[in-house]
Amino acid sequence: MPSFRRRGSVIDRADEPRPDIDDAVDAERVLALAEEAEAQAAEAEAMATAARARARALRLRREAEERAAAPAPTTDADADPDVVAEPESVVETIDSTEESEDPAVETTDDASPRPPGRWRRIARYVAAALAVLATCALIAATVFMVIQHRSAAHEEQQRAEFTAAGKQAVVTLMSLDFNNAQANVDRIIDNSTGQFRDDFKNTAADFVKIAKESKVVTDVSVNAAAVDSMSGDSADVLVAATSRVTNSSGAKEQPRSWRLLVSLVREGDQIKMSKVEFVP
């Protein structure tokens, strides 16, 4: 069967686009798109510049806070971007930069040393403990000094008492008046103790008889006395004395010097002789 081909008519040619008008419209549209693209590029560049400034400000602030908290060198791994990318990539870079800043700050905070406030609290606790120890040591030293002072004062008082008792014992023992011989002997017995008292008491009668027959008066003066040794309620006292003898006719003999070591014992409120030795 033969095919028929339709031929173009005048109406069809009237519907065809006019080449000149369409080309002008396309040129204007391209120009508008180019201007819009330039505006978007300028806006993207401004946003990128602002993003870099913000990132740099955050980095500088973080470095300042790190230096204030703990002066340690830190490595800045961030670098300023040198190339301006497309608008979409710039926005994504800004967002990723902002998100990466926070973890960096948190990591820096975690890696930073302990805050100064905690060290100050620890220092206060240590200072308080040292103050308590110093106070206890001062109290202990004060108590020790008081005890030592009281012990020294008590010992000094005992020395004085034994020294006075030794002087009086020598005067009582060596002073003799034939007119009061028995009273002198009784006084010696009352101021003695132990074996010395027993021995003297056994010979007291003979001593009185000899004193009356000699008809002499003996005066004794103590020149010096000192504690030789002391232990508890007993002491040995070294006494230097001088005796002067006068007979019944009034004649006086030359003074004689004596050195005696008197052993003393405290019995109640009285200190008595327990032994007497003449020493050269």
UniProtKB/TrEMBL annotation:
GO CC field: membrane
Composition bias type Acidic residues, residue spans: 95-109
Protein localization: Membrane
Basic and acidic residues: compositionally biased ranges: 9-23
Membrane spanning residue stretches: 122-147
First-listed, main subcellular location of the protein, grouped into a coarse class: membrane
Domain of life: Bacteria
Protein name: Mce-associated membrane protein
Lineage, broadest ranks: Bacteria, Bacillati, Actinomycetota, Actinomycetes, Mycobacteriales
